[in-house]
Amino acid sequence: MNLSKFDWQMADESPASRQQIVALQEAGLNYTPAFLRLCIQRGLTSPEAIRRATDQAPQTFHDPFLLYQMDKVVERLEQAIGEQELITIYGDYDADGITSTLILYEALESIGANVNYYLPNRLIDGYGPNIERYKQLIEEGTQLILTCDNGIAGHQAIDFAMQAGVDVIVTDHHQMQESLPNAYAIIHPQHPLGDYPFKDLSGAGVALKVVAALTDEVPAEALELAAIGTVADLVSLTDENRTIVINGLNRLRVTQREGLRQLFKEQSMALSEIQVDEIGFIIAPRLNAVGRLGDPTPGLELLRTFDPDEARQYVNLINEKNDERKQIVNAIVNEVEQRIANYDEIPAVIIEYDEKWPAGVLGIVASRLVEQYQRPAIIFQYISEQNVYRGSGRSIESINLFEALTQVSQHIKYFGGHSQAAGLTIDANTWTVFKTALMALDVFKSDLKEQAPALKISLALTIDEISNQLIEEIDLLGPFGTDNPKPIFVIKEASIDQLRWIGTQQQHLKLLLSQKNKDGILSTLNVIGFNCKTDYQHLQQTDLISIVGDLTINEWQQNKTPQLKIKDIGFEGSHWVDKRGSQIPDDFFSYENTVYLFEHTSIYQSYQKRISKSSVALLYKDVELITLQQLNVQQTLSNVAIVEPPSTFKPLKNIINIANWQTVYVGSYIQESKYLLGVPSREETTRVYRWIQQYQPLDMKNQMGRLSQQTQLPKTKIKLILKLFFQAKFVTIQDGHLFLEVNTKQKVDLQKLPAMDEFRESMQVEACLNYQSINQVKNTLEKEESE
Question: Where does the DHHA1 domain lie (predicted)?
């Protein structure tokens, strides 16, 4: 779609037939046809499959002892509890690591264990088991180390602890590498010797399984923590994880954890309204922020405390850290963008580093860069005292970053992660060879320059299919997330009935769309787009658009109405933008990659210096033989701006139809309207003729103003009359002076002379460009001249 930000990709599945829909309804599924079409598109073709997918009280919770070595872990933990050995839970610094640590800590404490916890400071300890920290913990009395959300790649530290006589139990969910650490036991849903039914638990999910095995129940207070960790870590929201999140959300809505209560109160969010988005956009970023910038312990204590005063202090602290994190990320992204702007071309994989960039925020920076440039990005902090580069990488869907790093692992000190994200550490002495080897991989040799990010569309809907009932049915498929994406819909060729910019800075877009169904009945839909002024500033109420978004129910003054939240907007063909007015707007000559079209040389010369370097100025008289290839010799041109109307349609139609332009800006500014003047009357031509008889010869340079004043005719009309007189051979011109031909007796019909035909066509062009609707202009000019 023209002007869309994304590559719209419709679902591959075959469309549902009417017979399939009827069969499902007859089987007792009292859902709308549109919802059943969505289910079938998602592979839910049987009544049983649809009932399971829409079950909002799922109980899919697999036996924890199906996890390899779980019986061994329970036995060892029971021994440690019975003998009051000091158990240290060694967690991680992100939201999943914090919640998994607290799940284990609260459970062990509740059954009388001698337990403490340690959350590594990523700026000091790095990721995963750390030999120095393990040594310190052992010296302080730790007799059993229980990892969570880390450890699967911690070979050296785990070897150290085991050789020191301290057992290490690893509970983790991250990508497993070829060799496993020599731990006492490893609880991992993907363990090569195990056969656990669900492979995609989060760290918090694995911790929950350990607690369930140890206590023979799933503690209700642990479910809300597991839901936070599961959503925050972007693992699959299917199977067991769906059960964890749905039940955890129910617990969150009545939580007694004072930190969470105050956090949501501060955000003006009622507990009863908590959904997956509130975890993803309110809780998780704040828990992550404290760990990204230093000690993550305040994040855990926020979740742990039941004291209101203490909770308030933690809420203030993590909000401050979150604001600080945003500022740091923005600064780093801006700096990387400036570096990339100086390159001859954007590299296939973006690799940048700086000593002052804190490693904890670099994953967010990499994500922002991937979104902007549509290629993998790995961003590092150079740590001079350790002589290493520590970084985070993110990737696009088509490139498996973990596999790419595996191919150059001989140059990496440490790495871990999965297909779309990774953390890694590079020794300074292998930095150059690492970069060279990585960028030489075949996977980074594909052309990524023009690749737009993919936007997967679930279904095409018409406006009359959209209702509150449909949206409520769609919500039954949630919670939405990884492997269970929120459905995205496209509405094609809808009219804009109302367009308003709202918000304190007019940054949000509100539309009312309308569309007729096959029976000619008109339906309308409210649409909202947030912070999209830059993307859609040229949208007009006259536009016919296709729009992609997700559906929500908007409640206002106890009124509930369907609403679509904008993801993207596109157009069939060129987007024609109406910039007509009495004056040229200040920004009219600032458009990038644009062909500016002029009629008059004087105006062309006045304005061509004001256009951007990526654009070109062109006179209509030079258009006839030009080709798109000639236009694009120096610039990649994608837009047209009509500064003035031409005297004939032909050169403008030639330009309009030479390419599939993205945008056509219609200015069509005129100094004096030929259309409003009209063709000269017999009386007006007689008036001019008699004036010339009296005052000839006419000095055409110096006497035109006097002639205009005394005949009370505009100069444009006088120039036409004089041209007609010349073509009729009523006058001659010598050295800029006009003389009457005194011997002329031939009768000539001035209305049939070429100058009159040219004037009439100029009037038609002006009438089209200046006085018709923008869609009428579009329809006229997009017809080939031959038509």
Answer: 349-431
Task: Judge if the upstream peptide bond of residue 697 is cis by omega within 30 degrees of 0.
Answer: yes
- Residue 521 Cα to chain centre, angstroms: 34
Q: Measure CA of the first residue to CA of the last residue in the chain; give whole Å.
A: 26
Quote the Cα angle for 358-363-365, to 5°: 80
Instruction: Identify whether 15 is part of a domain.
Output: yes
Enter the tokens of residue 97: 């690591």
Q: Does the residue 224 lie in any domain? A: no
CA distance 407 to 404: 5
- Burial of 447 (C-beta count, 10 Å sphere; 0-12/13-18/19+): exposed
Is residue 20 situated within a structural domain?
A: yes
Domain coverage including residue 633: 576-671
Asked if 303 contacts 319 with a C-beta cutoff of 8 angstroms, the reply is no
Instruction: Find, among 308, 293, 288, 248, the residue nearest to 121 by Cα.
Output: 293
Number of domains in the chain: 5
Dihedral class, residue 674 (left if φ above 0, else alpha if ψ from -120 to 50, else beta): alpha
Residue 482 near residue 230 (C-beta atoms within 8 A): no
pLDDT exceeds cutoff 80 at 417: no
Three-state DSSP at 736 gives: coil
Q: What are 501-544's pLDDT values in tens digits?
A: 999 999 999 999 999 998 999 999 999 999 999 899 999 998 99
Say whether both 559 and 582 belong to one domain: no
pLDDT given at position 445:
77
Sign for the CA dihedral angle at 34, 39, 43, 45 comes to: negative
Four-residue CA torsion sign, 265, 267, 272, 275: negative
Given the structure tokens 């991989």, which residue do they identify? Answer: 441
Give the residue carrying structure tokens 């908007």.
554
**Dihedral over alpha carbons 405, 409, 414, 417 (to 10 degrees):** 30
Strand 663-666 with 698-699, pairing: unpaired
pLDDT tens profile 105-158: 999 999 999 999 999 998 888 778 999 999 999 999 999 999 999 999 899 999
